[in-house]
Request: fold
Amino acid sequence: MGTQQIQETELANLIIDVLNLEDITPTDISPEEPLFGGGLGLDSIDALELALALSEKYGVELRADDERNEEIFFSLRTLNNFVRQTPE
Amino acid sequence: MHEMLPLIERSREDHIATRLRNKKTPNSQNLIVDVSEFLSDVIALADALPERSFAINICNDRYYFLVSFIAVIVRGQCNLLPANKKIVTQERLSYRYSNCYVIHDGTLPLSDQLLNINCVPLLNGHNVSDQSISIATDQLSAMVFTSGSTGDSKPSPKTWGMLYQSGTSGAQYYLPANHKVKHSLVATVPPQHMYGLEASILLPLFADVCVANVQPFFPKDVADTLTCIASPRILVTTPIHLKALLESRIDFPLIHVLLSATAPLTQDTARRAESRFGCQIVEIYGCSETGSIAHRATAQDAEWEAFDTFTFHQSSAITTVTANHFSLPIPLEDILEFSDHHRFQLVSRSADAINIAGKRGSLDELNQLLLSTPGVLDGVIFATPGNDTGRPSALVVAPNLGKKEVLINLRNHVDALFVPKQIVFVDALPRSITGKLPMKDVLELYNSII
Reply:
């Protein structure tokens, strides 16, 4: 289990804020574990809400892999790498 | 002699599916599948299926689902359509339907205890079929499982007569008056759900509709998929997805018809969607047991208009539906108020039912799980007032617990959608002397804190 990088902590804070996760602190979010369908209890409605928030804050649009979008395979780390990419 | 009904009512050269380019394979292209090729795939697969009675159909790709769903029926077998595709769900189904196998498209984890068939290498669209296929009206063809809030879901059996009726009603009522036009269709709902089955699998068998093989999720996925398919376009979606599409700032191509079901839309949302996407909103009302039974043009009309194949009966607050293709009358969970014999308003969901993202739960079951959690002295889960996703909240008396401990039982047993987002800790619930808990008082207490 890896430790969070600074930007990942910022993103973890945003997730907690947007999704109203009152009982979770940023360090509870393990950077490499799946965000959705895992221990955080996040589901597909959360995924859509988070996508809107990331679009507003970072101007990026999340994409899912069609084949497995029932279980959205984002971890804090993959999500962070995605939002930090230079927009095309 | 069994009464028979056609498998499909389309011309051989009609387009029935678009297989979108696989982004992982360079130089791949979008492929259009016509009815001849589709039927050849169906026959090739039907011949290759094992000699069993039930097929747990977990194909993700909508074209593979369409072919395998129909091949299973042609072979005289029955599709089991689980509410989710997890291994534990597949195994649980196999205990109930022992003579079964799993049919899939190679994209999901599988149980090693079950026979599984990957349909992809078994399709063979080369020997163009000229057969006309009919199915016995009373052949058991699918079991749709209502996604209860706990693991045990309720099966709803479908004969070919019922599925045929769904498909032909869809062709008549889902599309506006000029429905003779050829449409392309994209759905954000899975084909294993009754609404997704009717609107994205049965509809293309009986209306001039070409269905895309993908199931886009995020607004950007939806916009990109719509851009890839030919106009005029139909989008099959839910209020939750529609809300996300409306809030996003992405440009969407013109959508001709937007179908919505699973929870009621407000007139305001419908109007905003019509002006944003240039579409006509058609809202569908139904449930797993009956399939679609009514429609409304929500932006213009608050009342639902029933399909003319159904007859309604009311006694006290319960509405039952009858139809020629039902063997028994089916009671509805909702309370309906009729203005004439075919037009009605949805007054409310019954007190126990909770419906989120097309999944149906029972507040009673959720409350039992909450109350059986160690350390929870009292508590109540209820539909959050004013929350349009339908997610529940809870008032809890548990002086020594945190939110995580309160939710542990629920998280272990129910779909994450049904786990209350907001837990409000209180000293006591407003129970009457007899121990009853009037919902009015619960909401009053909740509103005074929030």
Observations:
- The radius of gyration of chain A is 12 Å.
